[in-house]
Amino acid sequence: MAMSSTSCCSGLLAKRSAAFAPSPIQQLSLLAQRCNAINLAEGFPDFPAPLEVKEAAIAAIQAEFNQYRHVQGVCEKVAEAFENTHGVKVDPKTQVTICCGQSEAMAASVFAVVESGDEVVLLDPAYETYEACVILAGGIPRYVALDPPHWSLDVKKLENAFGPCTKAIIVNSPHNPTGKVFSHYELGAIAALCCKYDCLAITDEVYEHITFEESKHISLASFPGMQQRTIVTSSLSKTFSVTGWRVGWAIAPAVINAAIQNIHVKLTDSAPAPFQEAALVALQSSPSFYVQLQQEYKERRDFVCNMLIQAGFSNFLKPQGSFFVFAQLPDKCPLNDVDYVAELIKEAGVAIVPGCGFFHQKNWTTMPAIQDHPASADKLHMSEQGLDMAAISGSGVYLERFVRVAFCKDMVTLMAADAAIKKHSARLNSPSA
Ligand SMILES: Cc1ncc(COP(=O)(O)O)c(C=O)c1O
């Protein structure tokens, strides 16, 4: 028997489903698959996970760890690592919940604390899942735009978003899509507002170990007065190149953690058992593992930044962390982000992501004007140093003028993308084109 028709079923949908239509990103992913494009779009590594971590997972399956499982040892390792890195004492018995990735940890955290009518401050641009969690919880997102090109946080604008209905702010640092790492000053300002307005911070720290040069990840939980009002979420996904294993965690004050734990059990019961066993090994990695991780990502970041400069991009923050570059399309490019990405997939066989999916406010279309700086021999240096906004005039920057390029890929993949983009540019610039 055929399934009932779409029009019949649509009347049965809950209203909230309408908020979750497919984005251009998903449609372009399909195009990229059809064109067999080199994938610099999605934020997952295409190189192997650490051998000893994989061996631990295999051994766990061989040892029949096949059933629902809550591995207390993982909570202990998470607490230990957090205390060693951030100097914040965490009780593994009452303050840690192991979830199915950061995604579930974020959902369970938001469901635990946000109720109908609560406002939640979000920074724009932002990773897509936070808004969905807030809306599903009945909360109201209040966006604060970060200021390009460094995506700095204007503290006055931030304070304007706080009020008596604010329940929480969600902060992701290192940041997807921009590659920004929030400074001590910015985090201090967020902490002060959380204390002043008596609200929570929910952090997404999945890129905690991927930072470059002098940029260091600081957790909001380590600021005075913040441990009792911060829910930290993170996961194995990015650090250990295992996005499909679905092991993450929330660290929260005991009362809140108990609620997160209960919601997690109702949603998914437990994270995959063999991969929790592997987490025990991953979370005991030596300091040299993290040093090498940063070195390898720095090499990839530099390669991709140079690739973009040669392709005519100039206005972008050289990533301080995460594994994404968020670049403004060259001024002379007549296409918007979605059309540029579609053309790059079809003509060069390289997939990246249009930036529009990360912006959530309509008024981004009236962002301050930025134009390419007067000719400079070292454009990357210029974008690192910052553009003098006051001295810059010219065309406006619109939300459809950014693309995100992932560099969590093998150097062979990155070199193939570079060659394909160069070939495409040469064709475009040839007299017969
Ligand atoms: C900022 C950010 N948070 C969370 C996630 C998802 O993390 P997990 O795989 O642990 O659910 C991603 C994945 O792209 C991400 O970029």
Automatic annotation (TrEMBL):
The keyword Transferase applies. Its cofactor is pyridoxal 5'-phosphate. The keyword Phosphoprotein does not apply. It comes from the Eukaryota. Signal peptide: none annotated. Residues 38-357 form the Aminotransferase class I/classII large domain. Keywords: Aminotransferase, Pyridoxal phosphate, Transferase. Belongs to the class-I pyridoxal-phosphate-dependent aminotransferase family. PANTHER family: AMINOTRANSFERASE, CLASSES I AND II FAMILY PROTEIN, EXPRESSED (PTHR43807:SF12), FI04487P (PTHR43807). This is Aminotransferase class I/classII large domain-containing protein.
